[in-house]
Design goal:
About 40% of the residues lie in helices and about 15% in strands. The chain is built from 12 helices and 12 strands. Strands 1, 2, 3, 4, 5, 6, 9, 10, 11 and 12 form a 10-stranded parallel beta sheet that branches. Strands 7-8 form a two-stranded antiparallel sheet. The mean pLDDT is about 95. It binds 3-hydroxy-3-methylglutaryl-coenzyme A and magnesium ion.
Length: about 325
């Protein structure tokens, strides 16, 4: 039976900010990472080493890593789409060698449909897997951990309902390449608990559930329910974004990830324990404040329901 410890991957600084239209200063992004670390978050996806022509907002990720406060026992994974991204990460690590290192983990990503992979990576899914395999091998060789993402595991904005067998095959390919974990993304955020359940049943046929993570966007308000469904299935790693920030530039209309505050609130008093560094967990009130702080930096209000309720009390 699975442990009751839930790990949160805080994707706010990456998924949360990558879709913003205005330029966010590096100092604000680094401050976000620092605040998340102080609130007890152990895994903070700090940004991406992708093409700035494709995703301009992630251009300063090296400086975000350099400026953010360092915490022991906190990891700062970054997204990498290709060899060029990995080379940028290793060059940065070589230039600034420190203990703990600036980062020890990359995330690679592809999708369950060709249409989405084309929009996001300019390749078919098969081509992307072929290109990523040597990148993963090189990263492992350089001592980095590698996480994999499969996008559009329920529905694709370009080709509709997704075949869960395809999700399983793509996830399995990432595990076989050497990813220690695969995060299953409901990129569009249309997924219902029933669909998440059916999708996980299929993927679990090929991958031990301990190697799976859930990544739910909240477009239709089902993200917290989908998190609980994934936990029921034995998934113990959940991607979440403070303030409910986020969206993918290549998933039109999708809103942010499940808010980290909402997940923390929903799991209070449950059989689950969220792992973190503040009294062994993540501090909900601090996270609610951070959700408001970063949202106000972006000129709006926090969209986290728990964050709004906490402010109002
Ligand atoms: P391409 O145009 O086919 O590639 O894009 P290219 O090799 O022709 O490169 C185009 C330009 O980008 C060149 O510059 C390259 O040097 C440069 P130029 O020569 O024209 O001046 N370039 C780079 N620059 C910096 N770092 C790099 C890099 N690579 C190329 N690593 C490519 C192919 C993969 C580069 C592009 O499609 C790309 O960057 N895609 C990333 C898209 C992205 O970041 N999407 C969001 C993240 S995924 C997501 O949000 C989903 C997730 O949250 C889960 C879920 O919700 O489902 C994870
Ligand atoms: Mg996402």
């Amino acid at each position: 039976t699975a442990s009751n410890v839930v790990n949160i991957v805080e994707v706010g600084p990456r998924d949360g900010l990558q879709n913003e239209k205005g330029v966010i200063p590096v100092s604000v992004k680094a401050e976000l990472v620092s605040r998340l670390g102080r609130a007890g978050v152990e895994i903070i996806e700090a940004g991406s080493f992708v093409s700035p022509k494709w995703v301009p907002q992630m251009a300063g990720t090296a400086d975000v890593l350099l400026q953010a406060e360092r915490f022991r026992n906190v990891r700062y994974p970054v997204l990498v789409p290709n060899q060029k991204g990995l080379d940028a990460v290793t060059a940065l690590l070589a230039k600034h060698s420190m203990s703990p290192p600036l980062t020890d983990e990359i995330s690679i990503f592809t999708a369950a449909t060709d249409a989405f992979t084309r929009a996001n990576l300019n390749a078919t899914t098969a081509e992307s897997l072929e290109r990523l395999a040597p990148v993963v091998a090189a990263a492992l060789d350089r001592g980095l951990r590698v996480r994999g993402y499969v996008s559009v595991v329920i529905a694709c904005p370009y080709s509709g309902q997704v075949d869960y067998v395809r999700v399983r095959d793509v996830a399995k390919a990432l595990i076989d390449m050497g990813c220690y974990e695969v995060s299953l993304g409901d990129t569009v955020g249309t997924g219902t608990p029933t669909q998440v359940s059916e999708m996980l049943e299929e993927v679990k046929k090929s991958i031990p559930v301990a190697k799976l993570a859930g990544h739910f966007h909240d477009t239709y308000g089902t993200a917290v329910s989908n998190v609980l469904t994934a936990l029921d299935h034995g998934v113990r790693t959940i991607d979440a974004s403070v303030g409910g920030l986020g969206g993918c530039p290549y998933s039109p209309g999708a809103t942010g990830n499940v808010a980290t505050e909402d997940v923390l609130y929903a799991l209070q008093g449950s059989q689950y324990h969220v792992s973190g560094t503040v009294d062994g967990t993540i501090d909900l009130d601090q996270m609610a404040d951070i959700g408001w702080w970063i949202s106000e930096q972006l000129g709006r209000e926090s969209t986290s329901r728990a964050g709004r309720a906490i402010r109002a009390r």
